[in-house]
Amino acid sequence: MNSKILTIDGETLSLNDIKKLLTNKYEKVEISSEARKRMIKSFAYVKEIVDAGKPVYGINTGFGALSNKNISKDDLSELQYNLIRSHCTGVGAPFNKKIVKIIMLIRANCLARGFSGINPAIVDLICEFINRNIIPVVPEKGSVGASGDLAPLSHIALALIGEGQVYYNDKEVISSFAIEQEKLTPAKLGPKDGLSLINGTAVMASLQSIATIEAQNLVKSADIISMLTLDGVKGTTKAHDPLITSLKPHIGQVQVVENLNRIIKGSQIAESHDDCDKVQDPYSLRCIPQVHGSSRQTIKQSEEILEVELNSVTDNPLIFPDEQKVLSGGNFHGEALALSMDYLAMGIAEIANISERRVEKMMNPTFSYLPAFLIESSGLNSGLMIAHVTSAALASENKYLCHPASVDSIPTSTDKEDHVSMGVTAGVKLLKVIENTRYCLAIEALCASQAIDFQEPQKTSKALQAVHQIIRKSVPKIIKDRVFNKDIERISELIKNNEVINECELITGELK
Questions:
Q1: Between β-strands 5-8 and 28-31, what pairing exists: parallel, antiparallel or unpaired?
Q2: pLDDT (tens digit per residue) in 387-443
Q3: Is 57 an annotated catalytic residue?
Q4: CATH number for the 5-200 domain, one of 1.10.1410.10, 3.20.20.70, 3.30.70.260, 1.10.275.10?
Q5: What single string gives the DSSP state of each residue in 34-84?
Q6: CATH no. of 208-314+336-409+426-508
Q7: Catalytic position from the list 57, 283, 343, 369
């Protein structure tokens, strides 16, 4: 088996596969031979239905509220093209390219299960779009997360038939141009093909997959940066004694305690005040295991949901050739994803909330015994005063973004689709919460690296020294006021690219 090829079969796609595709560790996506056999079988059964002339929803009837309209055999191909064109109603800014790439992967994997009745050649074309980096332009807004992500998936389908816009060679072009340049053939839609392409949860699942991957890395960075802060203000490590956690052994808390102790091990700063008269730190320092640990458990729940969803068949109707059945159901409904993403947003927002409080502690000389706002000549210089304000603004914005989208519903399609999940809304909000939280951690790292400088000549741990050094390569020590937003952006990129984690783990080994 070629380790550079991701072979999809509708049953074994993992979050780790998505990570590897996003980081270019897979060079190619292809369909397994067994999956191809299943698709051929269900495709043939659709042809039998058409030849028999019996009305079956999605094959030779109208759609949604028009399902009582029978369509003649001669018009079935036009029916599918009309479906795609009419459902391209997305508006607003386009999704990030990596989101669309994973949408296509998840959709192809769903179709590879062989219960959709689609022409296998169209699934091959989706794989070729991924392999050749032809990325459809897909507007963010337009899905309510039930009957599938119809509008955004239709924009991808439109590109497959050569009529939509795509990003190709760093330019936005009509998809027919990219298809021609790559010597491919546009998809030709037959009965059920169009509906199979657009009826499912691939958009929601892509948003949740990417958010979960980013959240996994974000909480590791939060553990590291929180310890940089703890040493910067000479906080105590006593609250992170494993004996405490042994009496409340939530798995997330256990993992965080192990991380924190490995990260700060050997710190001269921590050892220098081991016998000081401080008894307890504020909760933002003392309760890091309890808060960061709880956030980790929202990620764990998201991983469990995705483990099922990534290999589920989510379109409608479903084709069961062995049983000679076509069944209409509701696997396209995104409730499981929407609820999970709302929960994950709350978990990540708490990382920002507690980070902002730690930043405030560094600003306050009555607590930290450091210069006010972490600048020597305060008054003449404002130091990091307003960096803290930005952190407060971001943490506060997260609070309204955490209002759950999943508790909302609005009936559509003349009330046939009378309960919807709002899963895409939940996913878009979640990614914004993650971005805001990354900035909060960048601000904390900016402040904490300055606090560590004030502790010289005493040194922090080797792991935190490595993190401090990589920050200082991008952001010099603050001697006097400068434009700080550039510093925040640089550190945010270090966090996003996992450079903070990588530097730390060279010393600690892989963190939990």
A1: parallel
A2: 999 999 999 999 999 999 999 988 888 777 889 999 999 999 999 999 999 999 999
A3: yes
A4: 1.10.275.10
A5: HHHHHHHHHHHHHHHHHHHT---TTTSB--GGGTT-B--GGGHHHHHHHHH
A6: 1.20.200.10
A7: 57
